[in-house]
Amino acid sequence: MSKDREEIPGIIPENEWIEELEKDVAYYNSIAIKPKFVSKKIYTPNKYPEKFKDKREELDFQMQEISRIINGYDSLSGKGYSWLHYGKLRDPEKGKILPQFRAIQEEYFQKIESIQKNPGRGIVGYKRRRVGYSWLESWDALHDCITRPYFTIGMNSKSEQDSRALFKHVKFLYQNLPEWLRPRSSASDRRDFLEFAWYEKDANGNRIKKGIQSYIFSVAPTDSAYEGSALSKLIIDEAGKIPNLLTIWQFAEDCLRLNTRRVGIPLCMGTVGSIDSDGKGLMELYMNNEAYSLDRFVFHGYNGLIVDKFGNDLITESIRWIIYERHKLKNTNRSYQAAFVQKYPLCENDAFNRVTSGGVGNIHLINDQIIKILSNPPESRTGWMRAKHDGGVDFVPNPNGKIIVYEMPDPRRVNGYVAGADPADSDDKKKKAGKDVSDLALAVLAKPFGTESPKLVVEYVDRPEKLDGFFEQAAMVLKWFNNTKVLVEDNRARMINYFKTHHPHLLPLVPASILTAKGGFEMKNSITMTEPRKQQLIGLAEDHIDNFSAFIPSVKFLEQCKVFSDNHADDDLAMAYFLALVMLQADKKSVQLTSDQDKITHYKLERVGGILRPVYPNSTQVSRNIPKSIFNR
Questions:
Q1: Which letter does DSSP use for residue 127 in this model?
Q2: CATH 3.40.50.300 residue ranges in the chain?
Q3: Rounded distance, CA 55 to CA 61, Å?
Q4: Which end of the chain is more exposed for a tag (fewer CB within 10 A), N or C?
Q5: What is the pTM of this model?
Q6: Cβ distance 305 to 318 under 8 Å?
Q7: Banded pLDDT at 276 (limits 50, 70, 90)
Q8: Top CATH class, 381-586
Q9: Interhelix angle for 160-175 vs 133-147, to 10°?
Q10: What confidence tens digit (pLDDT) does each residue in 561-602 have?
């Protein structure tokens, strides 16, 4: 690394690099999304000339600037050019400042302008902390209202107070525009409403409104905040911290339509909060963006964090700083670590990671394995099970299936698999008091054989309309894997009763509690989740991850380990996996292949000539090497 680069704040000198962490740096650098806009010059704000020859020269300069503000100039969009030259910001340390050029910001402005030229889409995305997005969206709103007549913009943030704070950005930017660029707003100028118009009387004394007549208003994030409005643009700031985001969207989307066409532009962006509550709406809009007619745009942790002299992202250096900061936090509270990952996300998994105090297993081993899986995905097959006419079962590949097979069943394996399931008891998928609305999960593990390690061969996670559909698919999976028995928690009576009626041979005898010194099995088919049982599961999970994390092929399972047993956590697959580990611990029978079984010669004892001797099936062979003390009686 060149010396001048090392002098840029935030760059970690090469002599301080840590070999172990550099592997993570290399991986994230390989999947980093490179910005489309690349700056090849140093952009600096214009200086307004101190003197003009005459009024005509001054007017020409102003008209030229207005043209650039609208149409763009020098490879910059109109929004980007005006932001750089006229967007004065409030800085807590330096006071009033002009923004420093960042290529990623220009790319964002270009994205908005492209959508505004061809309405119908919007933007959804997540961002890192302290990227200055609130100022960017405030300038975007102001730019529209000073360049477009009759333009209407509604905006909100995560609370009423935050919405007003966002609107203060707009007013600060407006009040610090040059006088020749700042439109009059005397018609209405309140703390939550700003209209670019004024009133005057006509020749007949009638009071009429003049000016561009565009306006911006700020509202609290209530469900029906925008109901009845007609919007040219909708700006939702801190979208990852708004619990009722989808309800707001439901009402507001109609405000962007003209009959059947969407003519308004929605912008929905934020740092992601808890994806079980505040951030759930943003994750839904982002993951299903096509269904909502939204384009994705992301300010990753490395965007605008450390830049070169042209304002381009120094991606590798920024990623290195984030990875090393994460390493510093390795011994801190798990929740604090997860929050930092979300604040400076390097990929989607980081942004939508749960911030939780729960979890099981070594977090570093878990994260390392997730990175390995993402960089080199394991072979897998996705599909559904199908019953055959002869009573057997078949696996049918289908990209929309919920059953993921990492390793096909080996029909030769005797006593080769164990399984656990975490089902539900209610068909109702909607949230109701006292109802379980979580997913249902099945995990099948291959037992160790020879030098092999125990490993997940099938995961099945689903929430069908009717639970019997899951039960039947699960039963066919178990039959497919040599009639493997499945351990189920006994407060899930629906699955247990279904299997007792239709597939009793797939229910095991439950391994005895760890509090029982003699071990063995209990005479029942389901497990009671007592505190000792829970501790048994956690102990098995910790040991399994410590020793076999490198063989785990499922990102879903690993992510669920991070939040296992946390309130409202999505940990169904993890629970199913851990129940399978209970069966694995209790099952002392070694795995054998049928070919090996065939080599074991079985015999029965028969009295031959008054002497007990072993007689082999389908043979007249009689052992001649039997101790007399046993057979010669």
A1: B
A2: 32-296
A3: 10
A4: C
A5: 0.65
A6: yes
A7: low
A8: alpha beta
A9: 60
A10: 887 876 656 789 999 999 999 888 887 778 888 765 554 445
